[in-house]
Design brief:
5-stranded mixed β-sheet; Nucleotidyltransferase, domain 5; 14 helices; 2 domains; alpha/beta
Length: 400
């Protein structure tokens, strides 16, 4: 054990650290792998993205994950088996990529693994008085550490919940440390399965920063696509949505949920925004007859409207601000057209303008959390404002 503690101390005090960030989101489409080089910590963090790749999950892996994903009742045996199995799949991906990138595993200081979210249950959603906020990610950190030979940090969201948060969004910590800029009001908008944003004020005062989910990003559109076009996992270039016409009746029914009236910060997931939610909205609005294309067009506008409504709560209509987008939804042209049309006072760019590949951003931000856990000071992370407790996150797994 002393040997392991000595190694951790050595990593913490190095001039630079190589950390692999892993992210597999609620879209369940693949694993983002970002190899980053860090110097410093806190507001002095400097990051160089050395390598990045998204490894698409094959149909078998998607089926295995979806057998337990976002379901109230699952096989406990299946869940137990998948916890280690997913970690082994991720480890195999890392080992193969390091070989491809011409790195030895011993060149890497840490792995930061988000794991695979299986169920997200904030109290506002489960509404059971004796239980608090909860979330579950699987992909065992010990399996990753042993199979790669690299110290692994995982299960980041549990500390956030233990400190009074909802376990999400965690991007706010990395956004605050590496993307803030004096004199510029910024929104870091990530459109994954669920959309979320971080508001970074021009004064860089942590007390004024917050992050929140806004509602569905791609999750309902992807589910609708997969239901009606087997083998196609998302609406490529919004081809289906462009063919449809928005149903105002269905849109109004989709928007009629108490989640949208809740104050920031708040979190949600496919546990709420799913095809059952869509079906109920269709029944309430008497739009069950809608075509596939019209439904997709309406779901696209639904995601856009909820994102726009959330961002507008932050800014007066005349105030100028910058939006830096990331996540799969930024590749959906109709979704982005809707958002840009409604936020004419915003200047839009992707995080490429901030020297971070927008597809890699979420994986990079978990690497930031690992860097802070090992080399940082929790007091740099935040000031304890709502949804942003002053903590470091990540459970440490040591190789055999």
């Amino acid at each position: 054990m002393l040997k392991d503690i000595t190694k951790l101390f050595s990593i913490a005090t190095k001039a630079s650290r190589k950390i692999i960030g892993l992210m597999s989101g609620t879209s369940v489409d693949g694993l983002d792998v970002a190899l980053c080089e860090f110097t410093g910590h806190g507001l002095n963090t400097k990051i160089k993205l050395l390598e990045f790749e998204t490894i698409a999950f094959d149909d078998n892996m998607k089926l295995e994950i979806k057998a337990v994903f976002s379901k109230r009742e699952v096989s406990l045996e299946k869940l137990t088996l998948l916890n280690g199995w997913i970690a082994l799949q991720h480890a195999a991906i890392i080992n193969a990529l390091l070989k491809k990138w011409n790195y030895d595993n011993t060149d890497i200081d840490l792995i930061a693994s988000h794991g695979q979210t299986i169920y997200h249950a904030p109290k506002a959603l489960h509404q059971q008085s004796k239980f608090e906020n909860a979330t579950l990610q699987i992909g065992d950190g010990d399996q990753l550490a042993v199979s790669t030979g690299i110290i692994t940090l995982s299960d980041f969201r549990q500390k956030h919940i233990a400190a009074g948060g909802e376990g999400a969004p965690l991007a706010v910590y990395g956004d605050h440390l590496i993307f803030g800029k004096f004199g510029e009001e910024r929104i870091l908008l990530n459109i994954g399965g669920i959309a979320n944003f971080t508001y970074l004020t021009a004064d860089r005062n942590p007390a004024n920063i917050f992050s929140s989910d806004t509602g569905p990003g791609n999750t309902m559109m992807d589910a609708w696509m997969q239901k009606n076009y087997p083998g196609q996992y998302f609406d490529t270039n919004a081809a289906i949505a462009y063919k449809g016409k928005i149903s105002e009746a269905l849109l109004a029914a989709l928007l009629n949920n108490e989640f949208f009236g809740q104050p920031f910060p708040k979190t949600t997931g496919p546990e709420l925004f799913n095809l059952d939610y869509l079906q109920k909205a269709k029944e309430k609005s008497q739009t069950t007859h809608l075509s596939i294309e019209d439904t997709m067009a309406t779901l696209n506008k639904f995601s856009a409207d909820t994102i726009v409504a959330a961002i507008k709560k932050c800014f007066p209509t005349e105030m100028k601000f910058h939006i830096y987008s990331s996540g799969g939804g930024m590749h959906n042209p109709q979704l982005m057209e809707h958002i840009k049309a409604a936020l004419s006072n915003a200047h839009f760019q992707t995080t490429d303008a901030l020297q971070i590949n927008p597809d890699a951003k979420e994986a990079v931000l978990f690497a930031v959390l690992a860097n802070e856990a090992i080399a940082g000071d929790a007091n740099d992370m935040a000031t304890g404002v709502a949804g942003m407790p002053t903590i470091s996150m990540g459970k440490i797994s040591l190789p055999a």
